[in-house]
Fold:
Amino acid sequence: MRFEAAGLFEQGVRPPEVARRLRVSRKSAYAWHASWRQGGRAALASRGAGGLPCRLSYDQAERLQVELEAGPAANGWTEDQRWTLARIAELIHRLFGHQYTPRGVSYLLHRLGWSPQVPAHRAVERDEQAVELWRTEQWSRVRGRPSSWARGQSSRTRPGRT
Structure:
């Protein structure tokens, strides 16, 4: 988009017309025009993604993935098998010496292709066969309509309409 603007500026097109043709704000067109005047087409090249670069090297990120796939128990958390952002931040600090906030860990995991998962909380004593039996036998009775119910209406203002 910026290079298209540079081509238009080279043809003598003014920033408001560039904004209209490229469907961008006038402010952007004027900013691009100022950059183009000072440094030419090269000044409009992208400078890459914003923000700070990742603190982990490629090899460290690969090692982190291996450790995450090994699971929390393999890394000292035996209470349950869930990775939390706080645990991963602690793991990163232990392995590589970098401090990450939970939000920073979230960004890092997203960049590595991981997505948040919320486990289904189920009682350890849960009997799946008993639950299924209840669903088939009891739930249909609880949900079902008694045969004596007739389809009716809910409005008194329009009698006779169902």
Observations:
- The chain has a mean pLDDT of 86.
- The CA atoms of residues 6 and 41 lie 6 Å apart.
- The two ends are 60 Å apart (CA to CA).
- DSSP finds seven helices and no strands in the chain.
